[in-house]
Each structure stands twice: as structure tokens, then as C-alpha cells.
Specification:
Number of strands: 11
Bound molecules: (R)-mevalonate
Helix content: 40-55%
Number of helices: 9
Strand content: 15-25%
Radius of gyration: 20 Å
Number of domains: 2
Amino acid sequence: MSSRAEFQTTAPGKVILLGEHAVVYGQPALAVPVTSVSVTVTVTPAPDLVIEAPDLALTLTAQDEANHLDHPLFQMVHRVAQRFGHLLPRQRFRITSTIPFASGLGSGAAVSAALGRAAAQALGQRLSDDELNAMVYDIERIHHGTPSGIDNTVIVYQKPVYFIRGQGAVPFEVGVPFTILIADTGQTALTRESVGDVRHLMESAPDRYQPIVQRIGQVVESARAAIALGQHAQLGALMDENHALLDQLTVSSPQLDRLVTAARQAGALGAKLSGGGRGGNMIALVTPDSSAHIADALRHAGAVRVLSTVVSNTTPQGG
Ligand code: MEV
């Protein structure tokens, strides 16, 4: 029986601490959910299916089904309905988000996750996290071709993860909690494009780029050990090295570099771009004492928004 009362589902954003891009090629990466930004889907009774995203000026209706069969939002609802052997739900799904679009914080995967949960609940059903994760990954493939699966995994399970493509995710140990700032360049950039460009480099000059990708994997392993031991200075140095390696993969940008430099000059222990790059967000490792000062320096250097998140063995709290 389908649910007729109004209800909401949510999904958080995410940041990749280390290992983006190389994770597409089988190297490990570390990522955490960011709960201070989220997608909300509000479901209300309606005569027929409507999916609307007012921020994107988008409305998809069941009457128009033929025109948007391939649309990722429609596909998500369709898959959930198929899973339960149901016709499409007859409700209105209104998607709102505080996760900036195309900024490296996982807005696409978060929309799919919250919408998938909402569609199941609208049909009076519940999806397990494993099932939802597999479906969101399929939708991610429509968005950006060859995703590693890290974004959907962090966002669906809402836990910090050490992730290797094809092997799934395990939690990583945090010896001493640490604070990171997440600063937005304000420039949108599509992950699909940066991932495609890196693929081109890997195919056209593997001798040059494969060692960079492998080195990123080693940096991630060292960072995992440093995090377990609470060695934050060492972790910062590894973040700096990871940024330099991502720059060699051509996925940094002048704005990202400016914020990374500003954070370091203001006393951050380390800083790097996070996610697909070419714009979007960067992260800086800070101490509780230096956090406010470094956040000011980032704003001064052009950041349009600065969030902070504490990474610990439990789900991090945003601020
Ligand atoms: C995007 O958040 C992370 C990338 O490594 C792509 C992926 O893992 O699918 C750039």
C-alpha cells in the first residue's frame, strides 16, 4: 500500500579526503559524509507522478514520460518501482538541496539517494542500504560515465570510508579527531569532464600518468596510517603532496590553487582540492585554534562558502 501522508527523506554531502581520480583506476581513497549540507525530498499526495527540482527549474511528469525516460531522476524512481513490482508512485517529489551543484560535494549522488528512499517509502516499501547503493551507482554511471562508486557509497551509508573500486568500503580508524574546512571556489565543474580528461591522459601517455596515479595510492595508504595514529602534521604534508599530484593530472585550477595557498599561508597543516576538481571545493586541515583565522583567509582569497567538519570514528558533525 502506498503512503498518502506528506513525508521527507534526506541525504548528506561528502568530501573526499584523499585519493580522488586515482580511485577510478583501482587505487584506494578516503572520504567522509558532510552532514551540514544535504538534499531533501518532500513527498506529497498528487493525482500522478511529478518530480520537481525548483532550484534547477525542472519538472518531470508521468504524462511526459516518453520525453524523459533517460533522465536520471526519472530513472531512479523507475528503478525503485520496478524493484517492488509496482507501477510508478502517484505522488509529487519535490527536491531541494543545500549541496552546491557540480562542486565536488556529491550533489548528484545525494539527490539519487534521497529520491530513491523517497520513492520506496511512497510505495510503502523500504530499500536496504546495499540495494539503494547499487541503484545510485547505476544512476551515477548515467551522470559521469566511469564513476568509481565512492560518492554513492559514502552518501548512502553515511559513514567515513576507505574505499577501493570493486572491493567496496571499510571504515577507517581515526586515532584523534581532526577538523577540516571545506571552501567553495564558487566555480561549477562537471566531474564527468575532469574524469574524462584524466582518462584521456591515462590512455594517451600511460608511462607518464600511471606512476602519478600509483603514487596517489601510496599517499592514501600513508594518510590512513597517519589518521589512525593521530599524526596530523604528517597527514597535512600528505594532503599537500596529493594536491601536487592532482595538479599534475591537470585537475586543479587557478582558483583552487589560490585557496590552497591561502590556507597554507594562514597556518593550515595541509590543503588540497577535493572531488573532481577544475573548480568546486578544496579542503584544509586545521586545528581548533587556527580554524576561524584560516576560514577568514579563505574567504578573503575568494571562497564563496566555508564549511567545517570534524572527522572522527563516528559520523562527522558539520558546522
Ligand atoms: C568525484 O567525487 C571523485 C572522482 O574520483 C570520480 C570518482 O571516483 O568516480 C573524481
